[in-house]
């Protein structure tokens, strides 16, 4: 069973819980928090989730905050993370096909829960195309 890291801040907490339930039985989900609606700092949860992917404990990650921006920016500070902000399934598909994204960021304040689960499903069920995209992906982390 494939392993997925999930994390959110307070604005994404309810979506995180819905997505976890949606993935039950299909994937092994490691929840990095937050665990309530109390105000928190999203990097405290994003960094451990991203580390788990870099260390090979989890294959993919799902991050949720109000806009999706903060969690995406934080995750992308990690050398081997490619996190895409997605607000429609087509973006999740392209992020996997062309960019080999290993994390997605969802904007809880701007999408409905059904759309969020559709985006997650698309992300998790889309393969990287490789080919001409492989060379481009390899150039991302050269600093």
Outline of the structure:
This protein is α/β, with parallel strands linked by helices and 143 residues long.
CATH class: Alpha Beta
Corresponding CATH superfamily? Sugar-phosphate isomerase, RpiB/LacA/LacB
What is Rg?
A: 14 Å
The proportion of residues in beta strands is 15-25%
Number of helices: 6
Weakly predicted, low-confidence segments: none
Shape: globular
Widest sheet: strand order?
A: 2-1-3-5-4
Question: How many individual domains?
Answer: 1
Second-tier CATH architecture = 3-Layer(aba) Sandwich
Characterize the biggest β-sheet.
5 strands, parallel
How far the N terminus sits from the C terminus, by CA atoms, comes to 34 Å
Number of strands: 5
Helix content: 40-55%
- Please state the average pLDDT score: 94
By CATH, the topology is: Ribose 5-phosphate Isomerase B, Chain: A
Q: Indicate the structural class.
A: alpha/beta
- Write down the secondary-structure element order: EHEHEHEHEHH
InterPro entries: RpiB, RpiB_LacA_LacB, RpiB_LacA_LacB_sf
Keywords: Isomerase
Enzyme class: isomerase
Protein name: Ribose 5-phosphate isomerase
């Amino acid at each position: 069973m494939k392993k997925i890291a999930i994390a959110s801040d307070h604005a994404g907490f309810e979506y995180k819980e819905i997505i976890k339930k949606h993935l039950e039985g299909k994937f092994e989900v490691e929840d990095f928090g937050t665990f309530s609606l109390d105000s928190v700092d999203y990097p405290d949860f994003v960094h451990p989730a991203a580390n788990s992917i870099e260390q090979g404990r989890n294959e993919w990650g799902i991050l949720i905050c109000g806009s999706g921006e903060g969690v995406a920016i934080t995750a992308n500070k990690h050398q081997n993370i490619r996190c895409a902000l997605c607000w429609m399934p087509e973006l999740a598909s392209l992020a996997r096909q062309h960019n080999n994204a290993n994390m997605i960021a969802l904007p809880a304040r701007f999408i409905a829960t059904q759309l969020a689960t559709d985006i997650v499903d698309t992300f998790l069920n889309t393969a990287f195309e490789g080919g001409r995209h492989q060379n481009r992906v390899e150039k991302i982390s050269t600093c």
